[in-house]
Design a protein that fits this description.
Blueprint lengths: L18 H15 L6 E7 L5 E7 L2 E3 L8 E7 L3 H8 L2 E8 L4 E11 L2 H10 L2 H9 L9 H14 L11 E15 L7 E8 L2 E7 L2
Antiparallel strand pairs: 1-2, 1-5, 3-4, 4-7, 5-6, 6-7, 7-8, 8-9
């Protein structure tokens, strides 16, 4: 095949369904094929002045009716961290899933709300005890003199909680990204990629294809 010529038999494949339905389909496929952490997602935040930052987090819950009729995508973090502080000060964020094994990606943009305490408590209780103790000991994003200092902090926290459940720190909670736009991208030969962007309008969604 001449690599300089596009494949004429290619057709539109990204469905026009509700974007949450389409996300579920792609996420399930990623769970089957992606070798490591299919739930890993790049989270972009910004200060009120517009200075951006990005890092990887893990998606822990999602759905069209999650925490309200607009649905959302939930992750957990320390509110004392840089991302936590930026989310509290400027509740706008974006996510990017990139599944190399599928050659697909999903971009999500929207507003941020904090999950109810009961929901954060339930998820914190589901974590391993070591992870719970680490969350108590970590002053996330603050300067650390040495890793040995951190290990010492964990030892002190462990000694205080030898018996019984580990309490969730008040500064450790979940955030829900409520989407206003969701874009699906599919790799195509010759960089003739397929993109479909869904935009919320009222109680529903509209969608359109975009040039790659």
């Amino acid at each position: 095949m001449d690599a300089s010529q596009p494949q004429s038999h290619q057709r539109e494949e990204i469905a026009k369904d509700n974007p949450f339905t389409l996300f579920d389909q792609w996420f399930a496929l990623a769970a089957e094929r992606e070798p490591a952490d299919p739930e890993a997602v790049a989270l972009a935040t910004a200060t009120p002045d517009g200075f951006p930052s990005a890092r990887m987090v893990l998606l822990k819950n999602h759905g069209p009716d999650l925490l309200g009729p607009d649905g959302g995508f939930v992750f957990y973090t320390n509110t004392h961290s840089r991302k936590g502080g930026e989310l509290l000060a400027n509740p706008q964020a974006a996510m990017l899933f990139h599944w190399k094994s599928l050659r697909r990606q999903i971009r999500i943009e929207g507003t941020i709300t904090q999950v109810p305490d009961a929901m954060a408590d339930a998820y914190f209780a589901s974590r391993s005890r070591d992870s719970q103790l680490g969350a108590l000991a970590s002053d996330q994003s603050a300067p650390l003199p040495s890793y040995a200092t951190f290990l010492g902090d964990i030892a002190k926290v462990t000694a205080r909680h030898l018996i019984g459940p580990v309490p969730r720190p008040a500064h450790w909670t979940g955030f829900c990204l409520v989407p206003t736009a969701i874009e699906f991208w599919m790799d195509r030969a010759f960089r003739l990629h397929e993109r479909r962007r869904f935009t919320r309008e009222g109680d529903g969604w509209t969608s359109t294809l975009l040039y790659p």
